[in-house]
Amino acid sequence: MLAATVISLLVVMGLALARALLGPTIYDRILAVNVFGTKTVLLIAVICFTVGKPEFLDIALVYALINFVSVVGVLRYFEYRSRMGDTAHD
Amino acid sequence: MIDSLLNALSGLMLAAGCFFMVSGAVGLVRFPDFYTRMHAAGVTDTLATFLIVGALMLLAGWSLALFKLGLILLFIFFTSPTASHALAKAAQHSELRLEQPGRPATAQAGQAARNAAEPALEADTTNTGRD
């Protein structure tokens, strides 16, 4: 079941990447990148159980922290930029 | 006995997590507009994460890995809805604003409505455009 989870995680990450590439607005892209980052955390956690190395969980933990901070930071940037009068379509 | 029970339970939770995750990703790709996509992604994200990390916690047993998985779960449980909220708020402040009665959906539509409207309606819509 762990291998099937890894495969479906990779499929989901591919779909999120597709949305990030063809999303019409910048917010679609940020949403897709957020989903991608969350799924990366899960992928690292599942892989560390598949290969039997519990040390990898630290990487997953750090990745979860970085993901949240980066999403909120990018969001702040584009929120201020769209208030200045630019469009969200890049 | 209890070991095989835990294995079966964690397999079940992994399968359910995979199902929710894949359905959320299909919604993310297939849904027609930004807010529906955000609904699909944001709702399934939290539940799928909860199920998969919970299944891994069942597999881990009493160890340091259980504590770390608990930390990951707690963190994602708080940050995922927060990120969704921040995203929806930022989109609502941009020209992706949802359509409401007396409130233009986009900046262009608002401009067109202002140009075409009678004075009474115009007084209604002047201060509901972009901030």
UniProtKB/TrEMBL annotation, chain A:
Record Pfam families: MrpF_PhaF
Protein origin, superkingdom: Bacteria
Membrane spanning stretches: 30-52, 59-78
Membrane topology: Multi-pass membrane protein
GO CC terms, sorted: plasma membrane
Keyword Cell membrane: yes
Molecular function GO terms recorded: sodium:proton antiporter activity
InterPro entries found in the cross-reference section: MrpF/PhaF-like
Protein name: Multisubunit sodium/proton antiporter, MrpF subunit
Annotated family: Belongs to the CPA3 antiporters (TC 2.A.63) subunit F family.
Alphabetically ordered keywords of this record: Cell membrane, Membrane, Transmembrane, Transmembrane helix, Transport
The keyword S-adenosyl-L-methionine is assigned to this record: no
Subcellular location: Cell membrane
UniProtKB/TrEMBL annotation, chain B:
Biased composition (Low complexity): 101-123
Record Pfam families: PhaG_MnhG_YufB (PF03334)
Presence of the UniProt keyword Transmembrane helix in the record: yes
Alphabetic keyword roster: Membrane, Transmembrane, Transmembrane helix
Transmembrane regions listed in the UniProt entry: 12-31, 43-63
Domain of life: Bacteria
Record-given protein name: Multisubunit sodium/proton antiporter, MrpG subunit
Source species of the chain: Microbulbifer yueqingensis
Chain segments carrying region Disordered: 97-131
The UniProt record lists the keyword Lipid biosynthesis: no
GO molecular function, one term: sodium:proton antiporter activity
